[in-house]
């Protein structure tokens, strides 16, 4: 039997496992997918948890229920990825050799990458990129009676680039519902030149922020958070005071990928942006948030990347030319 | 700007997307060719930038 191993059972990994199970003969190919846990969170639903709209029951399911029969699901932390020996080492489930490797190990926000942010996390600074953080933010919002609420993007790229703006609009709605919107100075502090990354959308969204009385502070490259003073500080010395900080920390890929020497210093795996393969490894493909390709880090991107991978992997197995090319398209 | 408003259409769209995520996207269903990146883009504005 030949072996296809998939790292990560999030959006990209699950899609690939299910696609390849359909595409490959069960008598010839074993498919194994490895992930550190069995929670599959509906990440677009995180945004609504701090406002009491979504609950854990509505956004958290098991990974196993989305993985089709005929695929082996292994739960373990990864320890090492060796492209040369074609072996994956896990923390608790042993080693897995492979003929083909698909990597979809994602990225995550790391508050410790901004000076002072980890120390203030869930005290005066909050986030919404994990379920537990959403619950802490929900408590903080419930106690917030007025003052300056700052939403800060530390740096790009981030998972779902439009999420901070969606959050700003939801906070505006939430404060109106509570009848305290006029007591809150809502600030959107961003390293970008405006509300969003793309020029046409930025023009429209800047206007939407203006209409909602959300003040945009552009070109703010955060250097530190001073929790005692409730201040965020830019590298150029500019300061913005806050009463409640909602932070989008720098996003990093997997530390295991850095330690395995297959990723750049931010944990993102360098690949050809069209073929999604690392140079010199023709049996390895990478998709989703864990690559260094200049696309949005979003499930929709992974979905379309998966179509490319499926076509090219089948062509590779059959010894044919690989024609499919990713263009970074989402929806 | 209609897309940014608090409308029933937006609410229903969000619910439909959640259904599509669980039932189509994760299942690996083919949803069309990934080559529409210029559809709806106002290229003259992008080029000005």
Summarize the helices and strands and which ones pair or pack.
The complex is a heterodimer of chains A (331) and B (49).
Chain A: E1 2-7, H1 11-23, E2 29-35, E3 39-41, H2 56-59, E4 60-62, E5 72-75, E6 78-82, E7 87-90, E8 95-97, E9 100-103, E10 108-109, H3 117-120, E11 125-126, H4 131-143, E12 147-153, H5 163-178, E13 184-189, H6 199-211, E14 214-217, E15 222-226, E16 231-234, E17 239-241, E18 244-248, E19 251-252, H7 255-259, E20 284-286, H8 299-317
Helix pairs in contact in A: 1-8
Chain B: H1 8-25, H2 43-48
Radius of gyration of chain A: 21 Å
Number of helices of chain B: 2
Binned strand content of chain A: 15-25%
Q: What sort of overall outline of chain A do the alpha carbons produce when their principal axes are compared?
A: elongated
Determine the strand fraction of chain B and express it as a percent band. under 5%
Compressed to H and E, one letter per element, the order of chain B equals HH
Strand order of the largest sheet of chain A: 5-2-1-9-20
Helix/strand order of chain A, N-terminal first: EHEEHEEEEEEEHEHEHEHEEEEEEHEH
- Mean pLDDT of chain B, as a whole number? 72
Q: N- to C-terminal separation of chain B?
A: 22 Å
The biggest chain-chain interface is: A-B, 36 and 24 residues
The low-confidence runs of chain A, each spanning 5 or more residues with pLDDT under 50, are none
Structural class estimated from helices and strands of chain A: alpha/beta
Could you give the distance between the termini of chain A? Answer: 37 Å
Largest sheet geometry of chain A: 5 strands, parallel
Radius of gyration of chain B: 15 Å
């Amino acid at each position: 039997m030949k072996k296809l191993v998939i790292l990560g059972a999030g959006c990209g990994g699950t899609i690939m496992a299910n696609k390849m199970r359909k595409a490959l003969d069960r008598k010839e190919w074993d498919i194994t997918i490895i992930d550190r846990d069995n929670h599959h969170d509906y990440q677009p639903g995180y945004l609504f948890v701090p406002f009491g709209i979504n609950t854990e029951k509505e956004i958290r399911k098991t990974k196993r229920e989305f993985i089709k029969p005929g695929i082996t699901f292994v739960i373990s932390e990864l320890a090492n990825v060796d492209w040369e020996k074609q072996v994956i080492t896990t923390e608790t489930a042993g080693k897995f050799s492979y003929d083909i490797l698909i990597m979809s190990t994602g990225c995550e926000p790391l508050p410790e990458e901004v000076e002072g942010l980890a120390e203030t996390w869930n005290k005066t600074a909050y986030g919404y990129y994990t379920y537990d953080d959403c619950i802490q933010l929900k408590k903080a919002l419930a106690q917030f009676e007025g003052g300056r609420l700052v939403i800060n993007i530390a740096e790009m790229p981030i998972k779902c680039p439009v999420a901070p703006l969606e959050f700003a609009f939801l906070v505006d709605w939430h404060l109106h519902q509570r009848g305290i919107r006029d007591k809150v100075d809502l600030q959107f502090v961003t390293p970008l030149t405006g509300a969003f990354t793309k020029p046409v959308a930025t023009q429209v969204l800047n206007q939407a922020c203006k209409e909602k009385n959300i003040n945009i502070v552009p070109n703010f490259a955060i250097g530190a958070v001073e929790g005692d003073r409730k201040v965020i500080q830019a590298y150029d010395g500019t300061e913005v005071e806050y009463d409640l900080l909602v932070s989008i920390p720098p996003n990093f890929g997997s530390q295991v990928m850095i330690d395995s020497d297959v990723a750049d210093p931010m944990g993102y795996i360098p690949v050809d942006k069209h073929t999604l393969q690392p140079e010199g490894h023709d049996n390895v493909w990478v998709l989703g948030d864990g690559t260094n390709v200049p696309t949005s880090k979003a499930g929709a991107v992974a979905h379309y990347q998966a179509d490319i991978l499926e076509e090219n992997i089948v062509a590779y197995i059959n010894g044919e030319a690989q024609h499919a090319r990713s263009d970074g398209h989402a929806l | 700007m209609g897309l940014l408003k608090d409308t029933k259409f937006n609410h229903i769209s969000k619910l439909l997307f959640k259904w599509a995520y669980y039932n189509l996207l994760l299942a690996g269903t083919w949803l069309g060719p990934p080559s529409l990146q210029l559809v709806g883009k106002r290229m003259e504005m992008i080029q000005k930038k």
